[in-house]
Amino acid sequence: MTLTATRFDWVRQLVHRESAIVLAPGKEYLVEARLLPLARKMGLSDVDQFVDTVRSRPRPDDTRSIVEALTTNETSWFRDGDPFTALTSTVLPALQAARGPAERLQIWSAACSSGQEPYTIAMLLEDAMPSAASRVSITATDISREMVERTRAGRFSQLEVNRGLPAPMLVRHLQRAGSEWEVAPNLRRMVTARECNLAAPLPRMGPFDVVYLRNVLIYFDLPTKQAILRRVRELMRPDGWLFLGAAETTLGVDDSWSRVVLGRTSAYRPLKGA
Amino acid sequence: MTHPTDTGVRRRASDRPPALADLLGEATVLEITEQAWTALVGEDEVLVPLPAPLPAVTRSSWVEIVGPWTGTVVLTCGADTAVELTGALLREHAPAVLEDEDVDDALGELANVVGGNVKAVLPGPSVLGLPEVGTTPPAGREANTCRVAVLWRGQPLTVSVQSPAV
Amino acid sequence: MTVRALVIDDSRAMRRIVTGTLEGFGYETRQAGNGQEALDVLREGWLPDLCTIDWNMPVMDGLQFVNAVRANPAWRTLTLMMVTSESEHGQIVRALAAGAHEYVIKPFTADAIRDKLALLGLLPQEASL
User: Fold this and answer.
1) Taking every annotated instance into account, which residue ranges of this chain make up the domain Response regulatory (chain C) (predicted)?
2) For residue A152, what are the contacts with CB-CB under 8 A and spacing of at least 6?
């Protein structure tokens, strides 16, 4: 059984539009293998039926799970590493110059999935500033309770630590815990995980100096994108920095941001008076 | 093949080796085996934890662990299953004709992968031997064995972590 | 840019899998069944950008190979990546201390290899899924 060409094309276009990742022709087997569990969860027996169901009535939750199943972006540590490089090379020095030594830096990892992003940020800051544990707090949020609990636990399987975590950082910041690996306690103390639905009014948090909101906006329609960006801006410091996914931008969505090019990536900063 | 026996750990005669049951559970062995299958054999290659009798002709591969806990990790399946497993492992990288040596090598490498990860869960430091393959695996002490029986594509397969027979 | 890799593993199945994965990313590859064979390839003058190195092998193991490469200044441009089922914290530390740059734990997926190559700046083409 192989996926029909039209259905495969629909999946390819969806994944490309929402993640900028190209599914090469011939990867039908991969689409089948990754989408079959989603089809079964819906009570369907094959991927063709599943694709037809989602096509006829697209819901953000379903399209999001398709893209996530096919991209694995969010499950690797430093993949698309430029927004992390920019944190230590540009953003952190700017913030350290602008803030007093007693001020706490607040960072938000929105849609943190199983925790790779907030812990990547924690590791980088721990390596870049000696007092990180007492100077930085990282808020990690996700819509899924399961993901929030996984982030809180800070435990990763062997296969997960194999995905883009540099070996020197692995041995410095994680320890074996049975067949899994566990993030060091000092890093876990920097991270607070909580549930949060970005498409609804946000809880009182922040104000944040840096926000990572990557590969989330792509799943929403324009009015929802605009509402999310407005609410995120309300929780940010006026001189804060926002990082979006590689396929995302505020341009044409919300004009109250200015785009700053940082090496091979971009950050967005609230426009004054906007 | 030779097996390193000096782990650098000095033991007193009064030291008793730790009991396997206190170090490792079936759930861990199953998880390690499942990860090896998902990553190497194929991402939709599920292992169903159901015991079933092995066929008359089997093939086994094993690696020795020498350290604070010493024993062997043994993988056993039917001879035909071993051939199918080799094809699945190599996928598009398989040679036109699979030789016996290919099958033994693939089975041995799976034992090495499972064994290396089992070793990492056990107290260390310990040394992992090179894989060996045959029709009869080394005898283990039944009272000190952690065995997982699964079905892969409906065919029985077992993974045993076993202390050496006295 | 042609990127070259020497795949060192005593299992021919594993050599085929690693080689196939790297060739899929545009690599030119050669294989060696242990550390000694790998040194022979290097001495022949075939210098790769990357060596993927199994740990437990007959004749000369992966750690001895890393030490031998690091002892020769002519080979200092080689990027060394362990690919092994040795997965204890202490073993990874030992390999890095000896001069390995990266470490992939078996079992691995092709995605894991691609992520590590990206970290090392050794991913020749914008590799799609």
Assistant:
1) 4-121
2) A115, A193
A contacts of C118 (beta carbons < 8 Å): 78-79, 81, 164
**What is the average pLDDT score of chain B?**
88
Write down the pLDDT at residue A31.
Answer: 86
Q: Does A27 touch chain C (CB under 8 A)?
A: yes
Calpha distance A178→A194 (Å, rounded): 26
Chains sharing 3 or more CB pairs under 8 A with chain B: A, C
pLDDT of residue C22: 96
Q: Is A168 on the interface with C (CB under 8 A)?
A: yes
Two tokens, residue A9: 């094309």
Contact B35 A36 (CB under 8 A): no
Provide the pairing of β-strand B71-78 with B58-66.
Answer: antiparallel
Are A115 and A174 part of one and the same domain? yes
Considering the entire predicted model, what is its pTM?
Answer: 0.85
Confidence of residue A67 (pLDDT cuts 50, 70, 90): confident
Subunits next to C (3 or more Cβ pairs <8 Å) are A, B
Q: Whose structure tokens read 């107290």?
A: B123
Which chain A residues contact residue B117 at CB under 8 A? Answer: 158, 179
Residue C29: list chain B partners with CB under 8 A.
none
Residue A21 to residue C128, Cβ atoms within 8 A? yes
Instruction: Show residues of chain C in contact with B35, CB under 8 Å.
Output: 107
**C102 in B contact zone (CB under 8 Å):** no
* C-alpha pair distances (Å), B18 with each of B12, B144, C5: 13, 10, 43
Phi, psi dihedrals of residue B146, rounded to the nearest 5°: -115, 110
> B134: Cβ–Cβ under 8 A, 6 or more apart, which residues?
B59, B60
CA distance C98 to C92: 10
Asked if the Cβ–Cβ distance from A23 to C128 is below 8 Å, we say yes
The percentage of residues in chain A with a pLDDT greater than 70, rounded to a whole number, is 95
DSSP chain B: -------S----TTPPPPPGGGT--HHHHHHHHHHHIIIII-TT--EE----PPPSSEEEEEEEEESSS-EEEEEEEEHHHHHHHHHHHHGGG--SS--HHHHHHHHHHHHHHHHHHHHHHSSS--EE---EEESSPPPEEEEEEEEEEEEETTEEEEEEEEEEP-
CA distance A78 to chain C (A): 8
Among A71, A105, A125, the domain boundary falls at A71
CATH of the domain at A38: 1.10.155.10
* Closest residue in C to B92 (Cα–Cα): C20
Confidence check: pLDDT of B6 > 50: no
Q: Which residue of B has its CA nearest to C20?
A: B93
Fold of C3-120: Rossmann fold (3.40.50)
Looking at the structure of chain A, the number of domains it has is 2
Q: Which of C11, C12, C88 sits opposite B124 (nearest CB)?
A: C88
ipTM: 0.94
pLDDT in tens, A169-212: 999 999 999 999 999 999 999 999 999 988 889 999 989 999 99
Residues in chain B: 166
